[in-house]
Amino acid sequence: MTGPAIQIDAAEVERLVLELGAIGAWGGTGVWRPVYTPAWVAAADRFAAWCGEAGLAVHRDAVGNVWGRLDGREGGDAIVSGSHLDTQCPGGRYDGALGAIAALLAVRALKERFGLPKRPLDVLALCEEEGSRFPTAGFWGSSAIVGRVGPAEADTMVGSGGETMAEAMRAIGLDPARIAEARRTDIAAFVELHIEQGPILEQAGLPVAIVDAITGMRHTEIVLTGVANHAGAFPMDLRQDPMAGFAEIAAGVVATAHRMGRPAVTTVGRVAVDPNAPAIIPRAVTFTIDARHPDPAARDRLYALHDGLIREVAARRGLGVESRVLFDHPPCPSEPDLVALLERGAAAQGVPTLRMASGAAHDTQQMAAVARRVAMVFVRSRDGRSHTPEEFSSVADMVAGIRVLAAGLYALAYEP
């Protein structure tokens, strides 16, 4: 079944986006709202109030995730939708926040038109995803829900101001000793709406995409070591120059992803040179490689090509090489039947879509550990901008995305 046409109030979408974006406002259009700060507390309070006004049963779990429940007539595991409230520093009004607002407006529209669903519907505003205050904390809210936060983690995780996660939690009335209580095992499906954070929808001239996979990503730190020497007096053929090796590797790994084609991507993002002087052959160059692909086999091939190139260049140039994987997230495929269901819902709403993989990581990857079915809905971003005050999605595109989300939630929670 494709379900009925569902209407979403465009003015209400714009109002909630701007109202939430004003909490922690930075500059003209930016938002500065890292987890557990006063701005974050105010945003969580506002979202909880909106859920209560919509007639949802509101509660906050042990890490501060806000849940709004619409009970189901037949009970069972919940259908959940939402995203995160925290931002980059500074970020924009749409990354994360739009997904939480979309879930609320979709469920509110369904409740007002169709009453109680057969299965429970949960709206979720996750406390943290960005890692903007605690660099190692990314996905803190969803990690707690799926039971991936260790008992001592809050005490050892240090924030940008030197405070621990545990101290930040206690400062707003949360008890780190109760983190395990945030775990949920009763989630049947999780659907997250998010801005695209890239240019594909804009290039295609479409408002909405259905995400069929979230990329696998690996961050690797490489240290190339050679011999520091005079930049003028030492012949080229006798040098052990880690900068020359770095230049060859950086160009090579980027070219490898380019040859593989979309959606393979590789980025050399951070470089440190020792010594960093104009007339000295460096002793060492340390750099990072961010490599991503949503297909498990292609991802492994991309990583293997990168690793082989690094070894070959280092050996040929007489360089020492150390490699350390900072993190390695596997790809997360969407559940195929759920992707098809969302596409049918989009067709019923008259919203044109395409399928695409997400090149960014999302809470959905974490939620897949407990939800039997996961998928995402992307909304077009102007110029593909994200993680910046300049990010923007039009009201018309946001409404289209929320209608697709609502159609999917209707099929999951209301239909047999």
TrEMBL record:
InterPro entries membership: Amidase_Cbmase, Bact_exopeptidase_dim_dom, Peptidase_M20
Pfam families: Peptidase_M20
UniProt-annotated binding residues for Zn(2+) 1: 84, 95, 194
Gene3D superfamilies from the UniProt entry: 3.30.70.360, Zn peptidases (3.40.630.10)
CDD domains: M20_bAS
Entry's cofactor comment: Binds 2 Zn(2+) ions per subunit.
Top-level taxon in the UniProt lineage: Bacteria
Entry keyword Metal-binding: yes
Cited NCBIfam families: hydantase
Family: Belongs to the peptidase M20 family.
Protein name in the entry: Zn-dependent hydrolase
Taxonomic lineage from the root: Bacteria, Pseudomonadati, Pseudomonadota, Alphaproteobacteria, Hyphomicrobiales
